[in-house]
Amino acid sequence: MGTFRTYPAAIKIKDDINSELHHLLLSPKYQIDFSIVSPLYHYSILQHEIAIMDWKTAAQKKCDFVNALIPSEWRLPSPVPPASEQRDVTGVYIQQFLSEREIEITETDAVGIVKHTTGGEWTATEVTQAFCHRAALAHQMVNCLHEIFFEAAIAEAQKLDNYYKAHGKPLGPLHGLPVSLKDQFHVKGVETTMGYVGWIGTFEGQKGTGKEKVFESEMVRELRELGAILFCKTSVPHTLMAGETVNNIIGYTWNPKNRNLACGGSSGGEGALISLKGSPVGFGTDIGGSIRIPAAFNGLYGIRPSSGRLPYEGMANSMDGQNTILSVVGPIGTSVGALKLVIKGILSREPWLHDPLVAEIPWRDEQEQAVLELVKQGGGGQLAFGIMRGDENVTPQPPVKRALDVVVKTVEKLGHKVIEWKPPSHAKALEIAAIPNLDLRRRNRRFYNAPFPLSKHTNTNKTPVHAAFALSGEPMASQISSVYGERKEEYTASRIAATNVAKRQFQKEYMEYWNSTSSLTGTGRPVDAIIAPLAPFPAARPDIAKFGKGENKLKRIMPGLSVWVNLLDYAAATLPVTTVDKAVDKVDEGYVPLNGQDEKVHLSYDPEVYDGAHVAVQIVGRRFQEEKVLALTEILGDALGKHVV
Amino acid sequence: MGTFRTYPAAIKIKDDINSELHHLLLSPKYQIDFSIVSPLYHYSILQHEIAIMDWKTAAQKKCDFVNALIPSEWRLPSPVPPASEQRDVTGVYIQQFLSEREIEITETDAVGIVKHTTGGEWTATEVTQAFCHRAALAHQMVNCLHEIFFEAAIAEAQKLDNYYKAHGKPLGPLHGLPVSLKDQFHVKGVETTMGYVGWIGTFEGQKGTGKEKVFESEMVRELRELGAILFCKTSVPHTLMAGETVNNIIGYTWNPKNRNLACGGSSGGEGALISLKGSPVGFGTDIGGSIRIPAAFNGLYGIRPSSGRLPYEGMANSMDGQNTILSVVGPIGTSVGALKLVIKGILSREPWLHDPLVAEIPWRDEQEQAVLELVKQGGGGQLAFGIMRGDENVTPQPPVKRALDVVVKTVEKLGHKVIEWKPPSHAKALEIAAIPNLDLRRRNRRFYNAPFPLSKHTNTNKTPVHAAFALSGEPMASQISSVYGERKEEYTASRIAATNVAKRQFQKEYMEYWNSTSSLTGTGRPVDAIIAPLAPFPAARPDIAKFGKGENKLKRIMPGLSVWVNLLDYAAATLPVTTVDKAVDKVDEGYVPLNGQDEKVHLSYDPEVYDGAHVAVQIVGRRFQEEKVLALTEILGDALGKHVV
């Protein structure tokens, strides 16, 4: 029939394999169930199997090639024990494979590192080697890297050291700082697969462009100019549209703090790697929570800046050209200082002269200082926060509830004000963003107006998501097929226009609600930021699907608590608060379900499974208020004793 | 059949009426030819005629109602003579109907006015009365107003005077400054028709919204807070998508300096009114040249800011929700100082807290100062400009060529540098924006991805442009039907996404070309701005269609020289340079056509017809460089002796 390579198989991992999921998913060879989602995919089982051999071979080859780049002296003496024996591979577990000096270096945050490298106390080379070693260990433990270029990194570090010797000063403010990158950044010498088997050996799926392994994204150029060392690219879920990290090349990326759980997504590899301190700071992207979710699930600081603050130019993406809600790029790190350091660095390069979507807003020290000055006045009551404990659709699980309480108490202890946040309907926000939350599901709604390829009017080869799968014939992971598996007609221009208008009207309504809180705060100003959950659970359970069936199945990740921030284009940072304690975070016996989905969230909470997992909240500020959001997050983090996590 | 009110007639004004166009178009009763553009509009001639009676009656009633708001003592004693007898109605012609004091006030620019009103020398009332009087005269001469609210304005002015007496200080920086508004702004007490007969008595075409004559646009609220006086709303072409100003309510707005010519569009009423000094400063909008074209055609300063600099919130619009190229709001005035004054004023109100699309970029005095400091150093060579004399598609007419030469010579006389501007293909820019320039016409291309209503999949009632016509059954003006008259399928999400990507890639290419000029300027920086034409002619000829036939017919206005600025989202101001002098600006005998359209532009130039018309160029700066563009424009305007025009 010859149509196979046009329409990919939409398959799902068998629901009954969850008990063995850990081992099965660690390789691309996991078992798959060929129940085809729609009869509209016309091809035979035989064609399947031939094609699957193709993509499996290609994926395994790529995976083996990358893993072979780990020097033999950095290989683990034996495989990591299963999660049932070794739930947490952070801290003392990973330290056993490192020298004292390597531990000292890699457990210093980015601010501390550049203090030493720009001051000449530490060489870029020893810093880079230490992080390469730790990243190699991290990858062997949780499967978090797509590309490894340790050799090139160490060579760059040596050049920087030579520069320092020759000039007696650092190259730039990030001199010798290792920075990891989500596998959407193009870096010379390596590929960008973004988890697609079909992108192996290509530039964004195309061969012979002349850009393969040569072209670099704008931000990569700027990071190099600042003196940063690039050394690896981290794992993502194929399509980027999931809160878990899974693809057919590397398999599944686990949460290092609790290997029963997902590391989050789509910047999941970043979260896992930085949590293991295999990198001090890295960059992810966020269109619905993809920076904040992995930052939170891994107990890290991360910020989703407003769109147009940092340069996305020259990066690979899903659904490029969809501009109702833009994906944004932002950092994840072990301290708020790390995030400020790299954002300030990038903005000092005037990215608005090289990225048409970046607004000319330099780093504004004065906005950070304004917050610090207020607080310095002492006596309390200088700041005001809104507290949002959930929304109309979902009640967070007990550990998340407790984390919110901890933050509220911390704010109050500092003497500041907290008011209940009673905003315009968040259910409406999800409806506008067309999130496939079951209780809001509408016929013909699309996740972010996704341009679908399967309309008869459309050239299927030109539409990114399905075309990317079609290149190799690889199957979609079940987390993705719940979003993309179904054949639908494309949105029309009128429909998109109506969505854009609805979005703007909702933003207006929300900003006026925010303005109106000035009468409640006692500070004379509206609230300075909102304290809110960013997911209903501390981390996603890979086996969460078993808590529902068929149409009513719980989605792997509910973006309902994160995506309103994207719709509103607000600046939002994660604040790591605590870890799950099974002795404290018991199942809520008095729970009353809001709806069927909410009940499934409730049912999926198991203190035994979650014990030890990170719990974080988000601090949400207004559009382009990155400086203020980071200042507030740092104040709260310091008060929680988490200056560096 | 009952479908008439769903599908409007797309009609065109007879081509053979151009000799009498002036008089015919002055009323909505002009003759029309019922050649229906497409057989897909299903209705009978009979239904036409019934509906036409309806819209004609409604239009005439509205027109009469507004005109009746002109006090009898301000009515012209007799109609203005035809253009053949009185080509120019500005200056001494209009002055004959005004007192010395009224002339003194109305011929002071906005900066001078607020100096007097905030200093207490002039009352807001006498200033307002003087401008209301002059605006009433202007309207009777060139048909430039949609809404008149002189009484409310004078009452507001009296309140301001009382405030001043009570507090001994002005209400705000625009205290007592009359500001005119294009008929897209909602102002309490009056309607917004935007030229649609079907919008009479409604709020944007809807009845019973509770917003009728009550709701105010965000910027209107801010202007009031600043102390500005709103007194009239100015004419637009229906749909806003034309470089001429014509609709079925007020008819045609003529160019006051040369009544053979168009006043431009779509902010045409603003251009005509301010040119007659019936307003010191006003606000228009620009999606393809709609601020710059009327500013230029009327010898005024105007600026198209980058999108997101000034608040568009709560304004009526065409094709709302189309967000590939956004319409922006910006001022037109008689001095650069006027533009700075109102922009600085609006930004001081922090519009980003009330409009979700406004970026948090306050007025940056330091950017203006940086330019002034450079120039102060003296000795020449501090600034560098690119000169663009046309593009691949069109050669400007002799007066525009001369104006460009005048500006280049002025720059060189000041000692600054001018380099030839050799940018990426402007033809490509037009192709991306899908401008229906004949030489670039592609099947199924859309002007700004316009959401068309006629697809069978679409609810026709919800699509703005045709639905607005359908409300009354009124016909489209020929200038509009060339863009909207044809039935086409809607763009799909994939197509829009591809356009958005192409736009961004072009922006990137262009900005890197701009960056590259740093090696040519001798200043160490890339060029500070581009000097460019914004239309191939000093003003459009309403009879320009006669210079071509059928498919090859010249469009009323060629947006090819203005729309690249919108695609690139650059800040661009108009610089009035000279007037056409038939003794100097002779037909270019050595002309060689670039293409058929270009030849028609050439053929349409007639020194006799154009004599006396304003000629302007545009000064184009980078995105969000409004302060710099205005500073440069002021330096050039001063050097040309046009501090106030």
Automatic annotation (TrEMBL), chains A, B:
<comment type="similarity">
    <text>Belongs to the amidase family.</text>
</comment>
<dbReference type="GO" id="GO:0004040">
    <property type="term" value="F:amidase activity"/>
</dbReference>
<feature type="domain" description="Amidase">
    <location>
        <begin position="126"/>
        <end position="630"/>
    </location>
</feature>
<dbReference type="InterPro" id="IPR023631">
    <property type="entry name" value="Amidase_dom"/>
</dbReference>
<protein>
    <recommendedName>
        <fullName>amidase</fullName>
        <ecNumber>3.5.1.4</ecNumber>
    </recommendedName>
</protein>
<dbReference type="InterPro" id="IPR020556">
    <property type="entry name" value="Amidase_CS"/>
</dbReference>
<keyword id="KW-0378">Hydrolase</keyword>
<dbReference type="Pfam" id="PF01425">
    <property type="entry name" value="Amidase"/>
</dbReference>
<dbReference type="InterPro" id="IPR036928">
    <property type="entry name" value="AS_sf"/>
</dbReference>
